[in-house]
Design a protein that fits this description.
Elements lengths: L1 E7 L3 E2 L4 E8 L10 E5 L18 E3 L8 E8 L5 E10 L11 E9 L2 E5 L2 E2 L4 E7 L8 E5 L17 E6 L7 E8 L6 E7 L14
Parallel strand pairs: 2-8, 10-15
Antiparallel strand pairs: 1-3, 3-6, 4-5, 4-7, 7-8, 9-11, 11-13, 12-14, 14-15
């Protein structure tokens, strides 16, 4: 018997979840008996606890497997910070095992923290600011909102395959001035924020004075 690990998604994202799947398969000609799988997860990532059939030390008792049969065990992670770590699995059996080279598996797991910045960070009513994002889930639509202030209706921005995007956010012509927070929201990550300042008759971008 041997074990294989997959993590989905990988990379994962702060505020989302990662499902780690362990697949144990009997590639031999005889039944695999007395199977035990020891799960190892990166420290510091909240999880849903040991899967069914696993004890508190994350050792899982698996059913006997006939030739060619497989069994799966899943662990769910809920990342709350950026990190890089290893997911591991170690398989033991009380039966015969002619090939022990596939009894251990290791999968590198990255957790990313999405973040945004406004370019520029200051603007006046009627101005369209650029919101730039990094380390977002590719292809997952992102929507922006102001607080305080009125958010103009706009289509969501979709991150590129490298997790970056450049979106736009309009300051309505008659909206209020003062400090604001821009929030980016989407599926699979916690909302992220950046500061912005709405001014009247501003100097923006730097060294360029608005003229009327």
């Amino acid at each position: 018997p041997g074990v294989r690990i997959t993590a989905q998604p990988n990379p994962g994202y702060v505020g989302g979840r990662v499902v780690v799947t362990y697949t144990v398969r009997n590639g031999g000609d005889t039944p695999a008996t007395g199977l035990r799988l020891r799960i190892g997860l990166p420290g510091g990532i909240p999880n849903s606890g040991p899967p069914a059939g696993c004890d508190r030390s994350w050792v899982c008792a698996l059913p006997d497997l006939t030739s060619g049969a497989s069994s799966t065990v899943r662990a769910v992670l809920s990342p709350d910070k950026a990190l890089t770590g290893d997911v591991t699995g170690e398989l033991t059996t009380t039966g015969t095992d002619t090939d022990k080279s596939d009894n251990t598996a290791r999968q590198r797991l990255r957790i990313l923290q999405p973040r945004i910045v406004a370019v520029p960070e200051v603007g006046e009513p009627g101005f369209v600011t650029s919101v730039r994002g990094k380390d977002f889930p590719p292809g997952v639509p992102v929507r922006f909102s102001w607080e305080p202030g009125i958010t103009a209706a706009a289509a969501p921005t979709v991150p590129l395959p490298d997790g970056t995007f450049i979106g736009q956010l309009l300051i309505l012509a008659k909206d209020q001035t003062g400090p604001r927070t821009i929030t980016a929201r989407g599926r699979g990550f916690s909302p992220v924020k950046t500061d912005f300042l709405v001014v009247s008759g501003s100097v923006q971008p730097p060294d360029e004075v608005s003229r009327r």
